[in-house]
Specification:
heterodimer; A: mainly beta; 7-stranded mixed beta sheet; 4-stranded antiparallel beta sheet; about 0% helix; B: mainly beta; 5-stranded antiparallel beta sheet; about 55% strand
Chain lengths: ~110, ~110
C-alpha cells in the first residue's frame, strides 16, 4: 500500500492565483481530512470528509474548498491564494481504531 | 474546540536517557493519541489510549492518561538519536472523530 499520497510536494503561488492540492489514499478509509501546520501553531483542521459525497468545515475553512467524489481522493482547492495561506498542508485518513495516517505534506508559499 | 497542550515545549537529552513529555486538555475525550514528526515529514501515529485506559505500552514508549486531571504523559525510554523529532498529542472528543492537536514538543537526542 502507498498509504496517503500528496502532490505536489512544493508549490509557489502568486497572490490571487488558484490551485488544487491533491490527496489520495489506498486504504479504503472513509474519513479523510486536511490540516495546515504553521510554526508554533500545531495542526489546524481545514476541512474533513466522513465519506464520499460528504464534507464539512473544520477550524480554519475560509479560503479553501474540498470535494469528495470517491473514497480514494480528497482534493483541497485554494480559491484565491493569499500570503496568509503560506503553510505546510497535510492530508490524513483515519484507520479503524481512530488513528490517523498522514501524507508527506505540501509546502506552499504565496508571494 | 479543545486542544492538547504539550509541556515542556523543547527537550534536549543524551542518548540512553529517558524523555518525558506531558499533554493537558480541557474537555472530556474518547481517546488521546501521540504522534511523531521528523523534520520535513508527515506525522506518524505512535500510540492511542482510550479514556477508560490508564497506561499503555508500545516498545520503548509508555503513555499514561489521567482523565481526572485531564492530562497524559509520553515516556520514551533509552532514547536514541533517531528519536529526535517533534511529538504531538491529539485529543478525540467523539462526534466525527475530529482530532485537536497540541503545538508539539521538540525532542533532541544527542548521540
Amino acid at each position: 500500500n502507498a498509504g496517503v499520497t500528496q502532490t505536489p510536494k512544493f508549490q509557489v503561488l502568486k497572490t490571487g492565483q488558484s490551485m488544487t492540492l491533491q490527496c489520495a489514499q489506498d486504504m479504503n478509509h472513509e474519513y479523510m481530512s486536511w490540516y495546515r501546520q504553521d510554526p508554533g501553531m500545531g495542526l489546524r483542521l481545514i476541512h474533513y470528509s466522513v465519506g464520499a459525497g460528504i464534507t464539512d468545515q473544520g477550524e480554519v475553512p475560509n479560503g479553501y474548498n474540498v470535494s469528495r467524489s470517491t473514497t480514494e481522493d480528497f482534493p483541497l482547492r485554494l480559491l484565491s491564494a493569499a500570503p496568509s495561506q503560506t503553510s505546510v498542508y497535510f492530508c490524513a485518513s483515519r484507520g479503524t481504531k481512530g488513528e490517523q495516517y498522514f501524507g508527506p505534506g505540501t509546502r506552499l508559499t504565496v508571494t | 474546540s479543545q486542544q492538547g497542550e504539550e509541556d515542556p515545549q523543547a527537550l534536549s537529552i543524551q542518548e540512553g536517557e529517558n524523555a518525558t513529555m506531558n499533554c493537558s486538555y480541557k474537555t472530556s475525550i474518547n481517546n488521546l493519541q501521540w504522534y511523531r514528526q521528523n523534520s520535513g515529514r508527515g506525522l506518524v501515529h505512535l500510540i492511542l489510549i482510550r479514556s477508560n485506559e490508564r497506561e499503555k505500552h508500545s516498545g520503548r514508549l509508555r503513555v499514561t492518561l489521567d482523565t481526572s486531571k485531564k492530562s497524559s504523559s509520553l515516556l520514551i525510554t533509552a532514547s536514541r538519536a533517531a528519536d529526535t523529532a517533534s511529538y504531538f498529542c491529539a485529543t478525540d472528543a467523539g462526534g466525527n472523530n475530529r482530532l485537536a492537536f497540541g503545538k508539539g514538543n521538540q525532542v533532541v537526542v544527542i548521540p
